[in-house]
Here is the input.
Amino acid sequence: MAAPLLEVENLQVHFETEDGLVKAVDGISYTVDRGQTLGIVGESGSGKSVSSLTVMGLTRARNARITGTVRFDGKDLLGTSEEDMRQIRGNDIAMIFQDPLSSLHPFYKVGAQIAEGVQAHRDVSKAQAWDRAVEMLSLVGIPEPRKRADAYPHEFSGGMRQRAMIAMALANDPKLLIADEPTTALDVTVQAQILELIERLQSEFDTAVVVITHDLGVVAEMADEIAVMYAGRIVEKANTDTIFAAPEHPYTWGLLSSIPRLDAPRDEELVPIAGRPPSLINLPGGCSFHPRCPYVREAHTKVDPELKPVPGAPGHEVACLLDSSVRRKLWSELRSGVKPAEARSDVMEEAR
Amino acid sequence: MSVSASEATGANPVAREKIMEVEGLFKHFPIHAGFFRRQVGAVKAVDGVSFDVLRGETLGLVGESGCGKSTTARLLLRLMEPTDGSIKFEGREIAGVKGNELKALRREMQMIFQDPYSSLNPRKTVGSIISDPFAIHGMHKDAGERKKAVQELMDIVGLNPEHYNRYPHEFSGGQRQRIGVARALALRPKVIVADEPVSALDVSIQAQVLNLLRDLQRELGLTLIFIAHDLSVVRHMCDRVAVMYLGRIVELATSDQLYSHPRMPYTGALMSAVPVADPRLAAAKKRQVLVGDVPSPTNPPPGCRFHTRCWKAQEVCRNEDPPLVAKDGGNLAACHFPLSDAEVLERVPSARNVNG
Amino acid sequence: MAAYIARRLLWAGFLLFVISCITFVIFSVLPAGDPAVARAGRSPSPELVEIIRVQLGLDKSKPEQFVNYIADILPFLGGNGINFGFSYQTNTDVLPEILERLPVTIFLTTGAVILWLAIGIPVGMLSAVKTGSWMDRLAMGVALLFISAPVYFLGLVAIFLFADDIGRFPILPGNSAYGDADSLLGRAEALIMPWCVLAAAFAAIYARFLRGNLIDTLQEDYIRTARAKGLSERRVVFRHGVRAAITPIVTLLGLDIGILLGGAILTETVFNIPGIGRYAFNAINLSDLPVIQGTVLFGAFFIVMMSLLVDILYAFIDPRVRY
Here is the structure.
């Protein structure tokens, strides 16, 4: 088997602040193969964006302490000089962001902003770079690309701006595209357009994609594999089907049952996750999810669970101290409509 | 057009009384240009909208940004003056009320805003934020009595009443939204408009606020007008739903009807565009991707406003504006060529539930 | 755009009219020294004062005086040409006197503007890029010092230190040198000290302003995008950061130039430079109403025009702005 395109190993990103050490990313590992899509799901403050910016070498704060390894195409990125990193950014690894309006410079023409990225990495004339920009705009489905290249970002609609961002990101045929909440700021019909566009371009150019989102629907439609992050850690990782059909982490359950779904009966009861995400400075002891977990036991407040393979499910890893058989039983009860509180008393007694 | 939606849809077994009646509502924002600032056009944010709100129901308004749903809501609350049209609240015309009458009306209708961060004054304690409506309307003048009323409200929305003296920044996003809810409830209004109340919140927190709103609505018998762009949330929350496009209502039906039998192709496209948190279903469903963008509300297309993006559009759609009338299944829809059940089944995940 | 400019010009005219009304009220209706007495010299006879009063038109009613005054600005109202009135003190038309002093004020302003931009902008940029470094702290500390020191204090300190007649280190032409200089170079030399003193506070303000702006701009999403494209840090900061951060400076600069063209009163007075500012200062001392009104109106004219110019310029600098 060929080496993965991107290999992140035990990545830690900590920020030293006056209030204490912020453990934004606290030891995460994942791999992305060529042409594959990894979905990273989490709420704000889970570390999903910080970890990806670190892969790009864009965690620039002077108080950041980064450890671990990030191997891209066989190269260790964390040890790379800033100049070499600059040549990788926008060339081998590209990124698109949540808000396409604020992510484009208001004073420069869209075509010029794309051409600038081309010229940063290719030895081409201004005219050639401009032609490439027009070509990319047409590729992402912008009508009259030559005319639109001459327009400013504020003259584009939201969807068109995100298309332009994608054109910019893919202008140098990157091997990896990191999409940070690419459709969160967009309307649902535009979101469908953009998701379809990313999928089409991905299959056309065999680009690997890391999509970061809080929206489980988006990853269900896009990702091959999903990593669920909570408080700076990956708490569950599996292929997409498994995450939705047989999740084993109580946080993943919580996410799945707290969103209303179009494919479920209308009167389904939403089960929110109690409490709120912890402060990254004072993480709770033991499992960091334990204060919000309905199935918490005494030991969970002391032992920090590691991400471990689920027995009998290759590729499925979970960081939970409950026994796998207990977890499966709990999930099947939850799915059949049992409230967490009731499930807890039954199954937990048994497990004890 | 005056056919009441509740009668037409026929799906509401308990004939509920109308608390609000909206007829031919318009809001045009003028555009001025030239030396004398002549009006050269208008943004037709709300362009002829008629519907009823039933007492005790949750009515959803959905649509993409710029469709006029928030403007409609602000007009209902008379936070804006309509350009034309009639709004009746409990049978009384309120489209033109001013001054004290308007102030009195504010006690009946309240709003919950989207952003729990910017809609609360950071310099005021939670107690004074929630009691502001009392002060404005001269209620509970006695300090002790007011405090008691505020703490009661905090308890109702699931906040710790002892946190009366804390400031908004000491609360999380979900808790701040609860503060907003408590403030809206302070005057015991009959109608509450919630404008995207959960879209700024984290996923795990959203459900807390949605459940709270639903419970309060049931317990207090409130009439809730719920505006959101998230179709799954709207389906979950609402009894009836109006779909808006370019300042018009293009489809109106009970939630069950709308989500299982959308008639208007735009509604179908919206529903098929929603990503479903189920990879198998996601793979199986046909994603109806609409081409292009929403046309400008300054100059909406002639005929059916949706024809420029509709895959079923024909000559008649370009010329004739379809009226909002009852289609088969009972939905009110403004469409010349409504969707067939087969088309719906292919595209809309929520249709599968009902049809097996 | 043309309609916009036309409307703004009309508005500017109205504004200037209102300003002349206000100055007239402040200096003529409110009690102040009697200009006729001031004109008449030492211990004048009441008859002489009365004659002067009639000469100056001060015997007429206030509204009449105002109409006469306006007529000197807008000749179609029956005055004899645009002259901004007649100085009580020097027996001359005000407008020629102002125009004669204008080049001096322009010279002073231009030099100072170049100086403060040349210092303020690089310092602000460097401070923003190296936030928190010793350089940043030093620059911002010095800037605070200059902002807090008033021009008359800084000017006097400069004269006591460097003026070639009374200074500790007599290296620069001092007070009144401008009037004595006969060549352009000599005048420029005479202005070195005023330029520096005038520019000091402005350079400090601009440096701090640009620093703050640039720090904010460098946090923007589009800067992150520029970095993600793999642009060099130099290009990110200058082409993307400074370009956006410097735009508000245009507004500031336009208004500052407008204000100074109306007369840098303190600087001109301290260094005894024969510009509009000193002319206005003297007129205030002598209750020379027509001159006060003339200079105030002139200053207001520059401010109004510069702010119009800035707004027009903005349409070219920021593509989002359209009129």
Summary: Residues 94-129 of chain C form the longest helix (36 residues). Chain C touches chain A at residues 220-222, 224-233, 235, 240, 243-244, 247, 317-320 (CB under 8 Å). Residues 52 and 214 of chain C are 60 Å apart (CA to CA).
